[in-house]
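We store chain and fold; example below:
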Amino acid sequence: MRAEAAPANAPSRVLFASLIGTTIEFFDFYIYATAAVLVFPRLFFPAGDPASATLQSLATFALAFFARPVGSALFGHFGDRVGRKATLVAALLTMGLSTVAIGLLPTYDRIGVAAPALLALCRFGQGLGLGGEWGGAVLLAVENAPPGKRAWYGMFPQLGAPIGFFLSTGLFLWLTAAIGDAAFFAWGWRVPFLGSAALVLLGLWMRLRLTETPAFVRAMAQRERVRLPMLAVVARHPRALLAGTFAALATFVLFYLMTVFALSWATSRLGYSRERFLLLQMVGVLFFAATIPLSARLADRRGGRRVLVQATALILAFGLVFAPLFAAGGTGGALPFLALGLGLMGFTYGPLGTVLAHMFPTAVRYTGASLAFNLAGIVGASLAPYIATWLAREHGLAWVGGYLAGAAALTLLALWRSPPAVD
């Protein structure tokens, strides 16, 4: 018995490895999101109408969300057949190399239309890697969790989202303050992309020290492995896949409205400077980070789905007051708006990974949970900044709030119709 216990993952190692990996992944993902609003419209697209350049840049931002289900199928296949550890390492490398490559790309004034094409290719690579990363990190935590602490363990990879956002936004703010606009647009914007290489090496070192999760080892010992996990999920668990996808819909719509759309609209229409609004977003993200562990504690006591239902109902209500809160003048208007919206994001994001993971049996859990989460990214996030920008320009901010409220209503319906949890 002692020989079998020796290779088990220590709780601190599991939690840190799941957290550091998603922090790196989301750091990489968010530096692109920030650059898609602030940098890429100016450097990677033809000079002309700034609004059109921003919309084109947001279209490349959306591309990663279409790559993520491909990553879910690819990495999920190996994660369910070969193991969580090796697959997580491969996903991290894919994401990291794509991000570093963006920092090396020539701009439009040097190679013309090839610049946005290469940018789109690297963005696709980012999405591919993140499509395999999230599910594996959640399973690493959840499948090592002791009884009664699944949501608590499962929230650690979720914390990577606010931490990665905080680091990426803070780095952009520091760069613009330290070197000025001219140097920032000449070379400074590349620093976050190139600097992510150091974080990737740290993440690889942590993950290479892990062993397989007990649940995966047990499933392999009982010969539960399926030949084609993707086909098994679609054929045997369509209800779980559909319910999981729409259960995450409101989460995605809310987050990308509060970050990418809000940054773009506030700096172009509401008179905020880039630095000021990024700083306000960083304060708002603190509320996001604070409510993730709180919601996980509640989920372990009351049930993850119940907490998700309550949080989603509050998101629907927030959508109805979205426009007057966001349009309120001065810092006093934007900060409560960001704190409330991102705080609600944390309440729904904390238990989400655990709830999605336990919609699927162990043998197809990597593929199923990843696919549901990343299909939700396509439906809820890929075009959210684009759609919201169009709605706000054509019909006003109230329509953006209605868009969010509609997404929350669909999520409530999905949670009501979702299948029972699988141990």
Observations:
- The radius of gyration is 21 Å.
